[in-house]
Amino acid sequence: MRALVTFVICLEMVSGAKLPTDIEKCRYGDGNCIKNTINQLIRRYPKGLPKLGISPFNDFRPGDLQLFQAPQVGSMWLNFKLINQVISGCENATVTHVSGFQRDPTKAKLEIGLRIPRLVHRSQYNMQLRWLSMVQTNTTGPCYAEFQNVSLTLNLKVIVRYRQEKRYLKIYELMPQLELGRFFLELGDLYQHNLDLTLAVNRVYRENWLELWNDIEPKVLPSFSRSGVQLLNNIFDTLSYDDMFL
Ligand SMILES: *[C@@H]1O[C@H](CO)[C@@H](O)[C@H](O)[C@H]1NC(C)=O
Ligand SMILES: *[C@@H]1O[C@H](CO)[C@@H](O)[C@H](O)[C@H]1NC(C)=O
Ligand SMILES: *[C@@H]1O[C@H](CO)[C@@H](O)[C@H](O)[C@H]1NC(C)=O
């Protein structure tokens, strides 16, 4: 049985993964067509296409994220980690522009622009804080974050690898640029014995969302861009560049 399964998997690998027939293929470099095709793919397959390495758009689960990690010495330090992250809302993303993707993909700059009306990020946080030699906590609780009116531009740098005489892309760098309409963060159970204080701190976050976002963006973006590279490389590793286009 196992041998048979392995055999079938090998056959599939040799024959190569193909785009579904209801998805329009484009000519190399036709940014407008590629844009429409990706939008079709997102609309028709919100749960992704496991055969092509495409994960669900409505349920993106990046790995754990260590936001702050300070050595536990001195009078002030902060460790902050997000675990079990689940992001929804990518199923409502719209690709707004695509450039590059010429016959030789390394020739021109690869850029994909996206708009996402609302991204909801749910996770569990774990925080250790020491402040003024007095406050020391090991707190864990639910973390809820929401990003509204997200404009995302992805700049990709790729290399081309050959397998069975077909070209496969591999991303070695992804530089995201992010613009936000609004950012919203809520940490539950922040002070387990003081709900008022928890609410007050969350109110401060809400009222100062821009400053808060500016502080954490440099920590968050590289981590999400690593997840994005992984996500896209799963696709590029499954579907050859030659099979993506006419
Ligand atoms: C995505 O769009 C659907 C339909 O408009 C909506 O019900 C859903 O709440 C949206 N998802 C998010 C995370 O905003
Ligand atoms: C904090 O709590 C977590 C789980 O509640 C535990 O795994 C961790 O060892 C604790 N860390 C410290 C420094 O007490
Ligand atoms: C988000 O965009 C919509 C439509 O462009 C706009 O009406 C709304 O005010 C924006 N909201 C935020 C928080 O930027």
What does this structure look like?
The radius of gyration is 22 Å and the shape is elongated. Helix content is 30%, strand content 38%. The protein has helices spanning 2-15, 31-44, 195-207, 209-238, 241-244; strands spanning 65-69, 77-88, 94-99, 110-131, 135-163, 166-179, 182-187. The chain has 5 helices and 7 strands. The mean pLDDT is 86. The two termini are 37 Å apart. It has 246 residues and is α+β, with helices and mostly antiparallel strands. Strands 1, 2, 3, 4, 5, 6 and 7 form a 7-stranded antiparallel β-sheet that branches. The chain binds 2-acetamido-2-deoxy-beta-D-glucopyranose (3 copies). The site of one 2-acetamido-2-deoxy-beta-D-glucopyranose (NAG) has 4 residues, from strand 4 and strand 5.
Summed up, what is this model?
The chain is α+β, with helices and mostly antiparallel strands. The chain has 5 helices and 7 strands. It is 30% helix and 38% strand.
